[in-house]
Specification:
The chain is an alpha+beta fold. It has four helices and nine strands; from the N terminus they run αβαββααββββββ. The structure holds calcium ion (2 copies).
Length: 196
């Protein structure tokens, strides 16, 4: 995969095709070699207002809402409240909100003590704050504590009707369908156009 400016290569490709079509000095030349190179247009993977991170698109919503309303907002965007599967992703999602609290897609609404992600992914990572989750007054939804006021990206279960900002997460982004082929083109003169 290329790690540099894929748009530049794409533009080069289009310019090359245009040159073949209109450049009079290329009359009598023959298209000789075509190689292909496949790359990913990372900048085009996520739509406007979404950011890309490791195969998924994320959209932050800075206004606050209840957990259920937040999840419904994400569902309307064909997404879910975020599931977190690594500390790297945990830090990324919380950084979107500048360290403020925000909802995660994690809850034990259906079965007390059994936390599940709203997107149905495996509960294979957690980052609970000390003494959490404590189900204080029947807390069933999980938010981040951010990194302000001495917090360090931990999680806490809280009342689902609390109002928090949130992130929507959409994925798995089909990288394979976002590939484009570049044509590398060179020319050779035709036999009747040799220099004397
Ligand atoms: Ca609970
Ligand atoms: Ca709690």
């Amino acid at each position: 995969m290329l790690s540099v400016a894929p748009r530049a290569y794409f533009t080069l490709y289009l310019c090359a095709l245009q040159t073949i079509r209109v450049h009079p000095e290329l009359d009598g030349h023959t298209l000789d070699v075509v190689h292909s190179l496949t790359y990913v247009l990372i900048t085009d993977v996520c739509q406007d207002d979404w950011t890309y991170f490791k195969g998924y698109c994320y959209r932050k919503v800075s206004s606050c809402d209840s957990w259920n309303e937040s999840q419904q907002t994400c569902t309307a965007l064909e997404a879910n409240l975020p599931s977190i599967h690594s500390q790297e992703e945990n830090v990324y999602v919380q950084s979107l909100h500048g360290g403020e609290h925000s909802w995660l897609g994690l809850s034990d609404i259906k079965s007390e003590g059994t936390f599940v992600w709203s997107d149905g992914t495996l509960f294979d990572f957690h980052y609970w704050a000390k003494h959490q989750p404590n189900n204080f007054h029947n807390e069933d939804c999980v938010h981040t504590l951010g990194f302000l006021q001495d917090h360090t990206y931990e999680w806490n279960d809280i009342n689902c009707t609390d109002c928090h900002r949130f992130t929507c997460k959409r994925g798995n982004v089909p990288i394979a369908n976002k590939t484009t082929t570049i044509l590398w083109i060179s020319f050779r003169r035709s036999k009747q156009d040799k220099y004397n």
